[in-house]
Design brief:
The structure holds two protein chains of two kinds. By secondary structure, chain A is of the alpha/beta class. Chain A has ten helices and 17 strands. In chain A, the strands form three sheets. A nine-stranded mixed beta sheet of chain A has the order 9-8-7-10-6-1-4-5-11. Chain A has a five-stranded parallel beta sheet with strand order 14-13-15-16-17. Classes of the chains: A alpha/beta, B alpha/beta.
């Protein structure tokens, strides 16, 4: 039996958040006394430091341009059987979630996604957000193999020691389908405001309409180095451009202060704000999940609170 | 021979985002006043099928929802938006949030009879993000998730998959396939009056689920989420809250 960590891919290279998965794997390894193996799903994606690590590493001999979920699933499940992996750990990103659940069908395994914490003791319990983030679902693992995907930013990254042990196995794929050709498209982000701002003001669905967005821009203006961002739904509605979207499918931010206005705080959004040093939430619903991850909470209607706040700051500045 | 493509759109009904849910002895219970709506991501999936039809691709659009009696409301909505036929598989209880059971139920109905099966990228309530992938893995269909653009060319479908705000992947899939739609793909329509009137006369076809082997028993319970931060609530009237927050922000040297 063993633990297998599947590396995630970001910008066509190994996603550094893969190290967070190793932290979890080590936790389970310690309790269950199992070895940890790493799997790099493609060649030429910069997995060198992982290959030189203390962990046995498997590399699938497939170019990322030849990505096909069924092909990858077939070969990864072979590796899983070979190493008798009982805990298979992936990162919960759009890239990895595309193929990892399919492994559960071939392996007749349970698959639990979007895990944000683990209780590792006599038994292992994985915890995920459910009911639109309003509740936590605790699943006690009583059967293996189990496949889990972990929300990025939920655990500290593991520091791998580069021992140059080169304990690497390359998995060759016979008959790669040559017709498969994936193209990667990277949009240039001209909007750097979210990277540079000290204060980011986030807008949620509770803003109600595009007309109201200007109120939040007014609010942001009271801070010297600020920017406005939003949750996915606000961008879906066209109230903000997608370049200002925060979350798993958008940007991750790390300002000094993040102010979430009328944002309920789904785990999809919260995953993108973990880097913020201080999180302040303003929401009229005292039970909004955003308060669970905030340092300061204001239970108030943003349409009352924000105009008064702007006036208050202007009053101070005129003194 | 009918050369029209057959499309199945899988639709879940979910509590609307304002729904209040309590936990009673580890079991979640929604408030009686809860309003149920079409899962937003599935609405985008249906809209995408409808837009393919509008663009001149000849196709039949069927919708299916697996769930309790109340899901007929979203199936009716799918007919109003323009689906040709709607099917309801009656299943109740915990199973409705179990992607493996839902995938099996959908396959039981679909019987390899569809060229494209659409789903939303996830459900807004359970957020498992698995049903589409499981349908594909169980049927051997090609598939893609997080799809934000697509175009059909005879037996292939070219898709764009969103990876994050900046990066996406483009590739082709052979039909039949499963497409899990991401929200930025389109703007769902409001039903036209003529469609609403037409939908009134349409029947929602009931399907009996086969006796299903339940998924491996999971030992699971629910709680209100633990706070990861010690949130300090700023109390008082709005004006008191304003001055206190100002002081806090001032201390954090951002104001």
């Amino acid at each position: 039996m063993s633990i297998l960590v599947i590396a995630d891919v970001k910008n066509q290279t190994v996603n550094p958040s893969t190290l967070e998965l190793i932290t979890i794997a080590q936790k389970i390894a310690k309790q269950k006394n199992l070895p940890v193996n790493l799997l790099i799903p493609f060649v030429n994606i910069g997995g060198d430091s992982y290959c030189a690590s203390e962990f046995k590493t498997y590399i699938v001999n497939l170019n990322i341009e030849q990505y096909s979920a069924p092909t990858l699933v077939k070969h990864i499940s072979n590796i899983i059987r070979e190493v008798d992996a009982t805990y298979i750990i992936g990162l919960h990103t759009p890239f990895t979630i595309d193929y990892v659940p399919s492994l559960s069908v071939i392996l007749n395994a349970q698959c639990m996604t979007q895990i944000h914490s683990l209780d590792v003791g006599e038994s292992i319990t994985v915890i995920r957000g459910s009911h639109a983030g309003k509740l936590d679902q605790h699943i006690i693992i009583n059967e293996t193999p189990i496949i889990i995907t972990i929300l990025p930013g939920s655990f500290e990254p593991y520091t791998i020691s580069e021992m140059q042990n080169n304990n690497i196995t390359t998995i060759d794929i016979p008959e790669v389908d040559k017709r498969v050709n994936c193209e990667f498209i990277t949009k240039e982000m001209t909007d750097k405001s979210l990277d540079e701002a000290d204060v980011i003001v986030g807008i949620g669905k509770g803003i109600g309409s595009q007309e109201n967005v200007s109120l939040v821009y007014e609010f942001a203006k009271v801070f010297p180095h600020s920017a406005v961002a939003g949750s996915r739904i606000v961008c879906d509605y066209g109230w903000l451009p997608y370049s200002k979207q925060i979350g798993i499918t958008g940007k991750s931010i790390s300002p000094k202060v993040y102010i979430a206005c009328a944002i309920s705080g789904s785990s999809q959004h919260v995953a993108g704000i973990k880097g913020a040093k201080t999180i302040i939430a303003i929401n009229k619903d005292p039970y909004a999940p955003i308060f669970n991850v905030s340092h300061y909470g204001v239970v108030a209607d943003i349409f009352e609170f924000i105009p008064q706040f702007i006036d208050f700051v202007k009053g101070k500045q005129n003194l | 021979m009918d050369k029209r493509l057959k499309i199945l759109v899988c639709i879940k009904q979910v509590p609307d985002t304002n729904a209040v849910v309590h936990v009673n002895d580890g079991i979640p219970e929604y408030d009686d006043k809860t309003v149920y709506v079409i899962n937003r991501y599935d609405e985008y999936a249906l809209e995408e099928a409808l837009q393919l039809k509008d663009s001149g691709v000849t196709l039949h659009i069927h919708t299916i929802s697996v769930g309790p009696a109340r899901v007929q409301k979203v199936l009716r909505r799918s007919l109003e938006m323009g689906a040709d036929e709607a099917y309801h598989m009656l299943i109740d209880g915990d199973a409705i949030n179990n992607p493996a059971i839902i995938a099996k139920a959908i396959i039981q109905f679909a019987q390899h009879d569809y060229d494209i099966i659409f789903t939303g990228v996830m459900s807004e309530d359970a957020m498992n993000q698995q049903t589409g992938q499981l349908i594909a893995a169980m049927t051997g269909y090609n598939y893609a998730t997080g799809v934000t653009e697509l175009s059909i060319n005879k037996n292939t479908i070219k898709i764009t998959r969103e990876l994050d705000a900046q990066e996406s992947m483009v590739y082709e899939l052979q039909l039949p396939c499963v497409i899990c739609v991401q929200s930025s793909i389109n703007k769902p329509r409001y039903p036209s009056l003529s469609n609403v009137l037409r939908a009134r006369k349409q029947e929602i076809v009931m399907i009996k689920p086969d006796t299903m082997i339940p998924n491996k028993k999971t030992n699971c319970y629910f709680t209100v989420p633990q706070k990861t931060t010690q949130c300090q609530f700023i109390e008082g009237s709005v004006s008191q809250q304003v001055s206190q927050l100002y002081t806090i922000l001032h201390k954090h040297a951002v104001l």
